[in-house]
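Appendix C: a fully annotated inverse folding record. The material below is reproduced so that readers can follow the format used throughout the book. The structure is listed first as tokens, followed by the designed sequence.
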């Protein structure tokens, strides 16, 4: 998936191979956007998220001692909500202040007849964890356990 920022086409997220697991990486002009796109990357491992309708929302809040750990907390909270509610998410909105995150995830109940389900993600890990700003772009990444 690509986004157009100020006339420049830039990928919003990607996944990458990591031994037996999978890395997820979100990009954004703001750190919040990188977190949102990192969540998209993680859920793209689990299902074809373009087929997931953003019809139901779930609120998420978490905090951590720093931005790196906050990214892992965000992803793991989303996984917990997904597993408990039986929903898959495709759209996200995040606000971050003082290492506290408030966000929303939109999606729908998993329907195996409509959703192309792929790899189960068990947890976001601290492996290759990084939230940083590179030039004008924020990057949020980690490896997820599959």
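Designed amino acids, in order:
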């Amino acid at each position: 998936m690509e986004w157009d920022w100020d006339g420049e086409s830039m990928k919003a997220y990607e996944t990458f191979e990591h031994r037996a697991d999978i890395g997820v990486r979100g990009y954004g002009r703001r750190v919040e956007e990188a977190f949102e796109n990192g969540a998209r990357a993680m859920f793209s491992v689990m299902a074809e998220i373009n087929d997931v309708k953003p019809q139901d929302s779930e609120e998420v809040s978490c905090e951590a001692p720093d931005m790196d750990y906050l990214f892992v907390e965000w992803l793991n909270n989303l996984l917990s909500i997904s597993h408990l509610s039986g929903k898959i998410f495709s759209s996200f909105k995040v606000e971050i202040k003082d290492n506290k995150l408030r966000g929303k995830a939109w999606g729908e109940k998993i329907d195996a007849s409509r959703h192309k389900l792929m790899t189960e993600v068990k947890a976001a890990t601290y492996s290759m964890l990084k939230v940083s700003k590179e030039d004008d772009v924020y990057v949020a990444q980690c490896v997820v356990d599959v």
